[in-house]
Design brief:
single chain, about 290 residues, alpha/beta, TIM Barrel, eight-stranded parallel barrel, 10 strands, globular, binds 1,3-dihydroxyacetonephosphate
Length: about 290
């Protein structure tokens, strides 16, 4: 059964570790992430962007697949199914389809409008026992056509949104989606510290988990980050392993063209990436 992300993140914040949100794209992704979380006895959040939602034929298809897989694979660790960077309308659709958690990304609106829309979703998700992530200060880089400049959030605005009663708060601290450029100055820990001082017990979310050095991840967790999103790194690992298989001519030998064989190395590579992140984030054996 899917659960809200509230309890797992409250425990993570108290226990000084972070729960990974791994974005899914298809059946192989979902299976790899669920199996790895189960093997490591870790809570996990499956992230779905609106673009990935369309790709997988709509939110109801995803809810059906994930619920079926939880039962079919005998998954017992807490799993939240979460809309990533949702619009207001997208959040409502996911709620209707059976997601257990949604993110409303109102960071591109003026703060008053972000507050109004977030407030409405606090009410709706609250009535249904679902978790809600809000965002202040856009995350840089491009994700599914959504381009953010990578700003540092205003701690006062973070407090205004946190006080609305959201479950978790994503705040820009110089992080960006996708690969980091060579001249990236790193995370702004001063900003993170100021946000944490203002928002207290609120679990903070770090987007753009791909390529952030381990030491910075650990420091971010020390400063109140309890959820870390990873997407691109699984895609890169999957692509590299698939490329290796094809370049070695394995699809041409025997039944190597069978999708169950062709996609196996990529699926194993996703598992290895998720395993490494769960270890780094400290959520193993916290289910
Ligand atoms: P990366 O693709 O950089 O890992 O970011 C993932 C993310 O933040 C999803 O919201």
């Amino acid at each position: 059964m899917l659960v809200s992300a509230k309890e797992m993140l409250t425990k993570a914040k108290e226990g000084h570790y972070a729960v990974g949100q791994f974005n899914i794209n298809n059946l192989e992704w979902t299976k790899a992430i669920l199996q790895t979380a189960q093997e490591m006895n870790s809570p996990v959040i499956l992230g779905v962007s609106e673009g990935a939602g369309k790709y997988m034929c709509g939110y109801k298809t995803i809810v059906g697949m994930v619920n079926g897989m939880i039962e079919g694979l005998g998954i017992t660790v807490p799993v939240a199914l979460h809309l990533d960077h949702g619009s207001y309308e997208g959040a409502l659709k996911c709620i209707e389809a059976g997601f257990s958690s949604v993110m409303f990304d109102g960071s591109h609106y003026p703060i008053e409008e972000n507050i109004e829309k977030t407030k409405e979703l606090v009410r709706i998700t609250g009535e249904l026992g679902l978790s809600l992530e809000a965002e202040v200060g856009s995350i840089g880089g491009e994700e599914d056509g959504v381009v953010g400049a990578g700003e540092c959030a205003d701690p006062e605005e973070c407090k205004m949104i946190a006080d609305l009663g959201v479950t978790m708060l994503a705040a820009g601290i110089g992080n960006i989606h996708g690969k980091y450029p060579a001249n990236w100055p790193g995370l702004s820990f001063d900003t993170l510290d100021a946000i944490q001082q203002k928002t207290g017990a609120m679990p903070l979310v770090l987007h753009g988990g791909t390529g952030i050095p381990a030491e910075m991840i650990k420091k971010a967790i020390d400063l109140g980050v309890s959820k870390i999103n990873v997407n691109t790194e699984c895609q890169l690992a999957f692509a590299a392993a698939t490329r290796e298989y094809v370049e070695a001519g394995k699809d041409l030998s025997g039944k190597g063209f069978d999708p169950r064989k062709l996609l196996a190395p990529g699926t194993e590579a996703i598992k290895a990436t998720v395993r490494e992140k769960i270890e780094l984030f400290g959520s193993a054996n916290k289910a």
